[in-house]
TrEMBL record, chain A:
Domain of life assignment: Bacteria
Cross-referenced InterPro entries: DUF779 (IPR008497)
Organism in which the protein naturally occurs: Micromonospora saelicesensis
Protein name (database record): UDP-glucose 4-epimerase
Pfam families: DUF779 (PF05610)
TrEMBL record, chain B:
Alphabetic keyword roster: Oxidoreductase
Enzyme class, broadest EC rank: oxidoreductase
Enzyme Commission designation: 1.2.1.3
Residues forming the catalytic site: 257
Name under which the protein is recorded: aldehyde dehydrogenase (NAD(+))
Matching Pfam families: Aldedh
InterPro entries documented for this protein: Ald_DH/histidinol_DH, Ald_DH_C, Ald_DH_CS_CYS, Ald_DH_CS_GLU, Ald_DH_N, Aldehyde_DH_dom
Domain Aldehyde dehydrogenase stretches: 23-488
Keyword Oxidoreductase: yes
Lineage, highest ranks first: Bacteria, Bacillati, Actinomycetota, Actinomycetes, Micromonosporales
Amino acid sequence: MPVVSVTPAAAELIRSLRGRHGPLMFHQSGGCCDGSAPMCFPAGEFRTGSSDVLLASLAVDGVTEPVEFWMSKSQWELWKHTTLTVDVVPGRGSGFSLEAPDGVRFLIRSHLAP
Amino acid sequence: MTRYDAPTHWQSRYDHYIGGEYVKPHGGAYFENPTPVTGQTFTEVARGTAPDVEKALDAAHGAADAWGRTSVAERALILNRIADRMQENLESLAVAESWENGKPVRETLAADIPLAIDHFRYFAGAIRAQEGSLGELDDDTVAYHFHEPLGVVGQIIPWNFPILMATWKLAPALAAGNAVVLKPAEQTPASIHYWLSLVADLLPPGVLNIVNGFGVEAGKPLASSARVAKVAFTGETTTGRLIMQYASENIKPVTLELGGKSPNIFFDDVSAASDDFLDKALEGFTMFALNQGEVCTCPSRALIQQGHYSDFLAAAVSRTEQIVQGHPLDTDTMIGAQASNDQLEKILSYLDIGRKEGAKVLTGGSRADLGGDLSGGYYVEPTIFEGDNSMRIFQEEIFGPVVSVTSFADLDDAVKIANDTLYGLGAGVWSRDMNTAYRAGRAIQAGRVWTNCYHAYPAHAAFGGYKQSGIGRENHKMMLEHYQQTKNLLVSYSTKKLGFF
């Protein structure tokens, strides 16, 4: 199982956001409020650095370029025994993530890594 | 028992509050605001975008200079009057806040609103008492240090305590003489407007501006604006980093409160007697369910010493099972609804991974269906997991009524587990031996260590994070300096030249 996968509903949302906002990226958040949720930004909007790890370059049907999925290294140390599935649920908002105004929210579902 | 009626004082629509009046959104769009109590929409709110933020910044810049020069006595008086209005309307504010957020009205009546009232009074007093300093460098030379306001500041408010968290940021900023552009959380944008309806006439136009909307559409233009002198944010780490990144582009300071995974540590001697103290400690354990766990300092890891582990945990499970879950507007209700559907879904995803990782569910573990109108609301059973600190439910802020329990051998072991986290916002230490409590409290890497208490948030006790929990301290007069510049006048009283030229 890949480290990060995407449900069909999330893929559909990614396609839609890609059409409106251009190339995309994810950074997995931690902490309070809307933490522990994946944040979706225009690619390059969030500056990753040496404290981050690129977990996946997601291939999404209908999206030309791969969608990078990042997490802070320190957080990944605590998550690395699990695999992640990006899903989408009805929701109200979250940080500066692009999908919030659509009334939906990306959500991580987790599984134990084999 | 009292059951309040659903509040009816809402307007059907809230625009932006800019320059002392309500202004329609530039883009003409609104978004629905549901109550988590039933999931039903009760008002709609302006969907702000960059032009709305610019308009609010114009108003704030127009007002900042005069407000900054207003005497501290007058600013303090206005803050005290805001507090008085809130006191006179405490009940209706509490009911509004409960309807907005889903939290039980017993909490808003006894905590959220009284704390907010006191916070305005505290900063009214603090600004009156604040003094600059002078240093007499030599007989002819004096360094004067004045506190000056930053000017216009941006504040992005979380949804877990909509009025109280706005107050934590507004009271010091206004006391220090700043004009504010505030963005409420899109999950809870309405109750701050009800609050505003009670106090708006007290503030000069433009001193407080509220732009509603989503983070990406309204929060980002505010956080990235070169026209704000500082950004204050409470939320999560990715957005916190993004705000720091925007601030770095403008060389502006930020204060950030980004949550935690707070340990609540119970030493063996807690169970040495069956008395009031043990009863208080058990309540302290159960505090994980306060505000449905939607607190940055939720004591979501309970560390129980091995000697009394079984007995204490059994009593804690029993105490947790006595939590009354119900209609948030019923004064008997102890735990209400999660603030939004996505929050509910996230909590359920953690209940799932907790089980997959092998943690044992001691009580709860599911969504709660309270029936009737409440079936559409977002309710979760108070849940206790037993496991170990490497599990994700011990390492991530679930922001729900979920506590993960493990045991420890001795003081060093407790401190090791407590500090084995990315965060450092809050912690609790419970012991009858104050030497043990002191050693533990000093060794824990967290900004606030509640000692033989938990979840108290009085003004004049500094609150803020170590490690990835953020930057800055709120709730204390030191917060004034987060909203001030230091002006040094270096004055020579000598009439003699230096002799260099």
